[in-house]
TrEMBL record:
One GO location term (cellular component): cytosol
Family annotation (SUPFAM superfamilies): Class I glutamine amidotransferase-like (SSF52317)
NCBIfam families from the UniProt entry: PRK07567.1
Domain Glutamine amidotransferase, first and last residues per copy: 56-202
Protein known as: GMP synthase family protein
Coiled-coil regions, chain positions: none
Domain of life: Bacteria
Pfam families given in the database record: GATase (PF00117)
Origin species: Mycolicibacterium rhodesiae (strain NBB3)
Length: 253
């Protein structure tokens, strides 16, 4: 069980796109736990329930964007009014974040949104099934403060329909996998996105398999088998990425 290891002067902002309460609450608890903070240090805005509103970047230590069922590459006519609003708000905010080189960590959906802002090709060429995956740190990743000292190859949990097929030349690929060439990347010095979920552990993937069994990621009847298969992976290192993000950017007391 991880505990709080320092207090911050400015909290982190977690943006959630999950409309399913159990999955959204589990994501929030996981971010708090693996960050080594408590709920006073991580403020959540549930974008499916309320507009983003004005965000003053100076009020936060950094911003974390969670994952969820949205895909920026979905056909516009298939997107709900809520998804269209959320994407518009996020793309505008992430544009400001990139311009300011402001601390940002986008988990899964962050690849699609940040990738769209910087001109990456986001499509469905490289999907991955829900479950465990082997992540390989690139040579550039070896020198990155969030990925340095991690094993060359480590297990993670994920699952996605879209991904970055190509990155612009000014983005740095930090990690890859056999089925998805861009598992993590950095823009400028402080703006990050991961395709895998650095906040996800075994209990969390069980919650999400239940929450998203009818969202087209997998056959609903296979959920219990996927839970069994998830137990074959030793997922411990991705959480260090989240914690290092917090350690690097927290304004501490």
């Amino acid at each position: 069980m991880l505990g709080k290891f320092f207090t911050v002067d400015a909290p982190f902002l977690l943006l959630s796109i999950r409309g399913e309460d159990e999955a959204a609450d589990d994501e929030y608890r996981a971010v708090v736990r693996f960050a080594g903070l408590d709920t006073t240090d991580v403020h959540r805005i549930s974008l499916t329930q309320q507009p983003l509103g004005a965000v003053d970047l100076s009020e936060w230590s950094g911003i974390i964007l969670g994952g969820g069922p949205y895909n920026v590459s979905d056909a516009p006519e298939s997107k709900s009014a809520t998804q269209l609003r959320v994407e518009s708000e996020l793309l505008d905010l992430i544009g400001r974040i990139v311009d300011a080189d402001y601390p940002f960590l986008g988990c899964c959906y962050g690849v699609g949104t940040l990738g769209t802002v910087i001109g990456a090709v986001i499509d469905r060429t490289y999907p991955e099934p829900v479950g465990g995956m082997a992540i390989t740190v690139t040579e550039a990743g070896r020198g990155d403060p969030l990925f340095a000292d991690l094993p060359d190859v480590f297990d993670a949990y994920g699952g996605h329909k879209e991904a970055a097929a190509t990155l612009p030349t000014d983005a740095v690929c930090l990690a890859t996998s056999p089925q998805c060439p861009v598992q993590a990347f950095r823009v400028k010095r402080n703006v990050y996105a991961t395709q895998f979920h650095p906040e996800l552990d075994l209990d969390g993937i069980d919650v999400r398999l239940d929450a998203y069994k009818n969202h087209g990621y997998f056959a609903p009847e296979s959920a219990e088998q996927l839970k069994i298969e998830a137990r074959q992976w030793n997922v411990q290192h991705p959480h260090a990425i989240l914690r290092r993000f917090i350690e690097r950017y927290a304004r501490r007391r």
